[in-house]
């Protein structure tokens, strides 16, 4: 098992995955432009700003994660060649931290926000608030879909890191 290859493959998969944030961000921005150009009713006009904001947020998230993970590919090789055991140890710590963030943010906070936004749709009759709530739900569903697959990948990567850590300890003994 080559943990460096596994780490690089994981980072490349993350780069590919984060490009979907960018794609959906562009779709939301294009939807905003479409609402701006074609909207005739108050309800349709109410979507212009929320979809622009959601698209911008998705673009920022996507671009940030894209460049972060892209740079990791070269950093992994450098760190591994410098000290393989330290590389595995630092990756285990980083992955554990990321998994904790997933549990808190992605799988608790986001569903809670979706519920609140759904309640806004039911109880508030203003078009801007409804459009904002619907757009928020759409954006958060995109994030859940992308991060759900990312969590599955990082779980598998974590298992490989644990095996590599045990192998490294055994090699030292």
Question: Can you summarize this structure?
Answer:
With 173 residues, the protein is mainly alpha-helical. It is 93% helix and 0% strand.
Please characterize this protein's 3D structure.
The structure is a single chain. This protein has helices at residues 3-38, 42-45, 48-82, 84-123, 127-172. The protein is mostly helical and 173 residues long. The chain has one domain. It is elongated, with a radius of gyration of 20 Å. The two termini are 19 Å apart.
Number of domains as seen in the coordinates: 1
How many beta-strand segments?
0
Strand and helix order: HHHHH
Radius of gyration: 20 Å
- Stretches where pLDDT is under 50 for at least 5 consecutive residues are none
SSE class:
mainly alpha
Q: What is the share of helical residues?
A: over 70%
The average pLDDT is 92
Give the CA-based shape: elongated
How many individual helices?
5
What is the straight-line distance between the termini?
19 Å
Report the biggest beta sheet as strand number plus sense, adding barrel if it closes.
none
- The percentage of residues in β strands lies in under 5%
């Amino acid at each position: 098992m080559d943990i460096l290859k596994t780490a690089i493959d994981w980072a490349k998969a993350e780069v590919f995955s984060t490009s979907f944030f960018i794609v959906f961000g562009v779709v939301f921005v294009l939807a905003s432009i479409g609402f701006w150009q074609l909207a005739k009713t108050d309800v349709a006009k109410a979507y212009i700003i929320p979809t622009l904001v959601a698209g911008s947020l998705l673009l920022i998230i996507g671009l940030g994660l894209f460049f972060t993970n892209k740079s990791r590919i070269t950093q992994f090789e450098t760190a591994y060649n410098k000290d393989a055991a330290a590389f595995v140890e630092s990756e285990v710590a980083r992955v554990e931290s990321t998994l904790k963030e997933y549990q808190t943010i992605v799988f608790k906070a986001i569903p809670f926000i979706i519920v609140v936004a759904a309640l806004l749709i039911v109880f508030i009759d203003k078009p801007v608030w409804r459009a904002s709530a619907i757009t928020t739900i759409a954006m958060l569903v995109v994030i859940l879909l992308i991060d759900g697959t990312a969590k599955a990948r990082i779980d598998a990567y974590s298992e490989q890191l644990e095996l590599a850590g045990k192998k490294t300890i055994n090699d030292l003994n």
